[in-house]
Specification:
Blueprint (H helix, E strand, L loop, with lengths): L3 E6 L14 E3 L2 E4 L2 E4 L6 H10 L5 E2 L4 H11 L4 E6 L7 H14 L6 E6 L4 H16 L4 H14 E6 L4 H5 L17 E7 L2 E8 L4 H13 L5 E6 L3 H14 L4 E6 L2 H7 L4 E6 L4
Parallel strand pairs: 1-2, 1-6, 6-7, 11-12
Antiparallel strand pairs: 3-4, 3-5, 8-9, 8-13, 9-10, 11-13
Length: 284
């Protein structure tokens, strides 16, 4: 049976899940208060958020170097095919870095496996659905062509909706260029954000904290392609994530839910208090 290995950058936020040992992670570098970290457990996320709240400085993400991806390709060998899944190329240069690495590896004969790059057009839990699907298909013995076709389909169906407790980190990081003017920001009106063709946009406004989970649940049951799986992201909001999970399971008892804690890279822009859901959407 052909050997297929999966690689992904750490903005998939799967480091504290059962899947982390099943694929190779390329960590995203973080610079915060003149210190460098790797988004792979170098610092506890709660300590990280606490420091963000107290510091006048904002974390900055850097790109994994092409060499980091080349190292990952080499670590994946021996293999027949390598699938490398990255964060959206519209908000990050990670895909481009992986593409450079692919070209170097192929031109210089550094790996024997065929390398396939997948731009998830997502990040965090949206990206994690791609990885989980690929891992499941590999376990089931499905061929590389079918796996790649399925992942390509998911670039058109996977949606991630999320609400930030504050916009200041995302604005500072320049990740909200797709949003309409936020006239209500000072009034604590919270926009519901989502990825549209890889770009973050706002789809609605929420005026009360308690309405956030209700909005996400309604959106899922109105728009989901099926009620079989979903992923929940949270940053310093574990109780709310648990409540969201319970609401989903109350209406869809057989649903498969993955709850993830955001990592350093995503947390740098989302900030503490973020909550979100990802799923495959019909009529996207």
């Amino acid at each position: 049976m052909p050997v297929i290995r999966i690689i992904a950058d750490s903005s998939c936020d799967l480091r504290n899940t059962e899947y982390v040992k099943e694929f190779i992670t390329v960590p995203v570098p973080i610079i915060f208060k003149e210190r460098s970290f790797q988004d792979q457990g170098d610092i506890n996320i709660m300590d990280y958020f606490s420091a963000m709240k107290q510091s006048p400085h904002f974390p900055q993400t850097s790109l994994p170097s092409p060499q980091s991806f080349i190292n990952a390709f080499s670590a994946a060998e021996p293999a027949d095919d390598i699938i490398c899944i990255t964060a959206s190329s519209k908000i990050s240069g990670i895909f481009n870095s992986a593409n450079i690495a692919k070209r170097i590896a192929e031109e210089e004969g550094l790996v024997s496996a065929r390398i396939h790059l997948v731009d998830s057009k997502n990040v965090s839990i949206g990206m994690a659905l791609f990885i989980r699907t690929a891992l499941d298909m590999v376990k089931n013995g499905e061929v590389i062509g079918d796996i790649l076709a399925r992942l390509e389909e998911m670039t058109r169906t996977v949606s991630m909706y999320f609400v930030l407790d504050t916009l200041k980190y995302a604005i500072k990081g320049g990740r909200l260029s797709g949003l309409k003017p936020m006239v209500g920001q000072l009034l604590n009106i919270k926009p519901v954000l989502y990825f549209d063709e890889g770009v973050v946009r706002d789809v609605d406004r929420i005026f009360k904290q308690k309405q956030i989970e209700e909005w996400l649940v309604k959106k899922f049951f109105k728009s989901a392609l099926s009620f079989e799986q979903a992923a929940i992201a949270q940053g310093d909001a574990l109780a709310r994530a648990g409540s969201l999970e319970a609401r989903l399971k109350a209406k869809a008892p057989g649903i498969r839910i993955l709850i993830q804690e955001v990592g350093l890279a995503v947390g740098a822009y989302a900030g503490p208090g973020v909550i979100g859901i990802a799923f495959e959407e019909k009529n996207k």
